Structure formats: structure tokens, C-alpha cells
């Protein structure tokens, strides 16, 4: 852990992977759902690079490489194509461009999702690191975006199972020294005391 934080603005890549949405058979709901959740959760303004692409492994790989290597995204969220169907190849493409795996993200998403659908175990979603960037696969159902990022809450809003986004700010801090904060009523960020802003010059 370095003791210096960058003032850089957070850049996020959003990738909606859907044969039918990319062909115009239905309207893409993936990018709008990701965008609206992030706008509600993140305190500081951020920049977005969005792509809507078909379930083609080479296209997915090229898109992830472009977002990380050329655009310098700190975080890339994909939605769609994580299941067992023949054309569901998002995790395969993500692993193919990965430097390192972050298995906890896939494990936690399946845990969270089991509270919403018994078919949660059908998602092969992965989390990986490429260069300075964290890449996370979310399922294709638009409602799954909020579910996996935010977690399970009771009717009073008390968190029952943490969503994966709670761990994202600290992960990005470890990868590139960027410091992001979230609205706790949407999603509380966790970092060790020594990594909190007030402890770092
Ligand atoms: N981008 C999207 N916009 C709106 N709805 C979507 C989108 N992606 C997926 N869905 C919905 O979630 C379901 C499961 O997503 P999945 O990624 O498995 O898609 P699919 O069935 O392989 O089809 P396609 O790739 O053509 O979207 C879809 O059948 C569709 O109802
Ligand atoms: N939170 C959440 N996770 C979910 C779902 C969902 O509706 N909500 N759908 C499941 C289903 S039905 C499938 S097939 C897998 C893979 O979905 P994908 O191919 O759309 O990525 O995600 C699973 N995970």
C-alpha cells in the first residue's frame, strides 16, 4: 500500500454484451442500469466509456483491451453472456485478457444472487485484474446489476448480504491509488483504517 493518493478522476468502462440488444431486437437496458446505479452510489463525478457489443469472444476481448489499455479505465463492468449457453462467452473472454484472477468477486456474486434466483449458480461470472484495472462480469438480466452490486437488504434497508461493490473502492485504491467514496445508504465501502483518507497524507 503506497501512502499517496492520486487526484485522478475515476474512469469506468461499461460493456453490455447481448446479441439481441446489439442488433436492435430489443433496447439495451444494461448500460442505463449500470449508469444509474453508479450515479446513485458514487459521491464524486466520474467518466464513462460505454460499449454495446454482441456475444463474440474476439469482440469482447478487443473491447476490454481497448477500455483498459487505451482509455485507462480503472474499473470495467460487463453485463451479459455469463451463463452456460453456447454463445455465453463473456467469462472466457475476460479470463483471456486477464493478468490475475480475483475469485472472490464471482463467489460473492453467486452468493448474493442465490437470494434472488435459484439459477444464480448458472452464472460463470469472474473478476480479474488487467494492468491497473479491475474487470467484473455481471449477469445479463438488468435487475441483476443492482442485486449483485448492492447486495441483499431487508425492507428497512438493513444489509443482509453484502454486494460486491463494497470491496471495489479499496481494490481500486490498491491497484492505482485512486480514492473513491460511496453513499453508505446505497452501498457502504470498506477499507482498513490505515487505508482511510484521514490516515493518509
Ligand atoms: N442488454 C440487455 N438489455 C435488456 N435485457 C437484456 C439484456 N441482456 C440480457 N437481457 C435479458 O436478460 C436475459 C438473460 O441474458 P443473457 O445474457 O443470457 O442473454 P441471452 O438470452 O443470451 O440473449 P442476448 O445475448 O440476445 O441478449 C435475456 O434473455 C434478456 O431477457
Ligand atoms: N442477481 C442475479 N443473478 C443472476 C440472475 C438474476 O436474475 N439475478 N440470473 C441467473 C441466470 S437465470 C443465469 S442463466 C445466469 C447467467 O446469466 P447471463 O447469461 O445473462 O449473464 O445468471 C444468473 N444470475
From TrEMBL:
Keyword Translocase in annotation: no
Domain annotation MoaB/Mog: ranges: 13-159
Keywords: ATP-binding, Molybdenum cofactor biosynthesis, Nucleotide-binding, Transferase
Classification via InterPro entries: MoaB/Mog-like_dom_sf (IPR036425), MoaB/Mog_dom (IPR001453), MoCF_biosynth_CS (IPR008284), MPT_Adenylyltrnsfr/MoaC-Rel (IPR051920)
Annotated EC: 2.7.7.75
Any one GO MF annotation of this record: molybdopterin adenylyltransferase activity
Pathway: Cofactor biosynthesis; molybdopterin biosynthesis
Source species, domain of life: Bacteria
UniProt keyword Acetylation present: no
Family: Belongs to the MoaB/Mog family.
Protein's name in the database: Molybdopterin adenylyltransferase
Name of the gene encoding the protein in the UniProt record: mogA
Amino acid at each position: 500500500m503506497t501512502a499517496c493518493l492520486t487526484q485522478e478522476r475515476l474512469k469506468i468502462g461499461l460493456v453490455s454484451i447481448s446479441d439481441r440488444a446489439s442488433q436492435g431486437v430489443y433496447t439495451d437496458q444494461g448500460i442505463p442500469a449500470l449508469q444509474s446505479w453508479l450515479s446513485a452510489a458514487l459521491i464524486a463525478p466520474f467518466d464513462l466509456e460505454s460499449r454495446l457489443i454482441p456475444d463474440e469472444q474476439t469482440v469482447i476481448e478487443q473491447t476490454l483491451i481497448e477500455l483498459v489499455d487505451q482509455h485507462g479505465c480503472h474499473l470495467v463492468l460487463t453485463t451479459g453472456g455469463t451463463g452456460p449457453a453456447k454463445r455465453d462467452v463473456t467469462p472466457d473472454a475476460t479470463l483471456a485478457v486477464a493478468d490475475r484472477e480475483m475469485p472472490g468477486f464471482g463467489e460473492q456474486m453467486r452468493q448474493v444472487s442465490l437470494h434472488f434466483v435459484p439459477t444464480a449458480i448458472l452464472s460463470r461470472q469472474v473478476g480479474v485484474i488487467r494492468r491497473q484495472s479491475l474487470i467484473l462480469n455481471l449477469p445479463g438480466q438488468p435487475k441483476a446489476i443492482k442485486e449483485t452490486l448492492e447486495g441483499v437488504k431487508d425492507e428497512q434497508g438493513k444489509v443482509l448480504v453484502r454486494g460486491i461493490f463494497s470491496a471495489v473502492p479499496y481494490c481500486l485504491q490498491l491497484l492505482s491509488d485512486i480514492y473513491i467514496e460511496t453513499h453508505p445508504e446505497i452501498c457502504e465501502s470498506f477499507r482498513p483504517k490505515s487505508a482511510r483518507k484521514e490516515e493518509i497524507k
